[in-house]
Amino acid sequence: MGWPGGSWQSTATLAGTITAFYLAALWLTIVIWTNRDIRARTHEIAAHTLATVGILVTGFVGLPLYLILRPRTTLADSEARQLEDAALYAEIGAAPACDACDNAIEPDFLVCPHCANPLRGPCHACKRPLRHGWIACPYCAVAVTHAPRRATASRPTTSAPLDSTVSRLSALASDLGLPNEEPREPRRRP
Ligand SMILES: [Zn+2]
Ligand SMILES: [Zn+2]
Predict the structure, then answer these.
(1) How far apart are the C-alpha atoms of 127 and 137, rounded to whole Å?
(2) How far is the CA of 124 from the centre of ligand 2 (A)?
(3) What separation in Å is there between the alpha carbon of 93 and the centre of ligand 2?
(4) Of 113, 82, 84, nearest to 97 (Cα)?
(5) DSSP-assigned letters across all residues of 76-117
(6) What are the boundaries of each domain within the chain?
């Protein structure tokens, strides 16, 4: 008759056998895939066992349930997100702030734009601007002898905020070597 294998029955048997092997291989594959997938998503051994045995027993029927119920993110994703968050928080924590009003400032600001607190004063040796709190000049290696006006700057403004701002700016200007006509109010000359 020309049927491969001799008769249509044996052909059907062969096709059935191939299909059965294929389905068995597919079944085994999704069991292995599920095991890998659940281990990438949780460290809990009970969840590994439940998912793997569940798919082993139910096969293609249980797979959609597993895909719905599995943990949404993989462990690698959540670790990456934690690292991102940690980096972000470190960046926020390291952002420089005005020590008088606590607003964010840029590292090269000379004066706080929010409260006019002088942020940097000149090195007495090389005249380059130094940040408050530095105890040595990083440019010429001279020790900073006086902490420039941090006490004055962090004192709260009492009566006239504009006068206080003007006196702070003129003090900063004279420290930076700029011409300054008005004598500073808070400091008395000997
Ligand atoms: Zn400020
Ligand atoms: Zn210096």
Answers:
(1) 10
(2) 7
(3) 28
(4) 113
(5) HHHHHHHHHHHHHHHHHHHS-B-TTT--B--TT-SB-TTT--
(6) 8-76, 97-190
pTM strictly above 0.90: no
Q: Note the ligand closest to the C-alpha atom of 121.
A: 2
Nearest to 145 by CA among 123, 176, 168: 123
Question: What one-letter code names the amino acid at 189?
Answer: R
Task: For the chain, 190 residues long, give each residue's pLDDT as a single digit of tens.
Answer: 566 667 888 889 999 999 999 999 999 999 999 999 999 999 999 999 999 999 999 999 999 999 999 999 999 999 999 999 888 877 666 677 888 888 888 877 888 899 988 888 888 888 888 877 788 889 999 888 754 444 444 444 444 555 666 666 667 666 776 655 544 455 555 5
Alpha helices, H only, the chain: 8-41, 45-58, 63-69, 75-94, 150-154, 161-175
Angle in degrees, 0-180, between the axes of helices 75-94 and 8-41, rounded to the nearest 10 = 20
CA of 99 to the centre of ligand 1 (A): 7
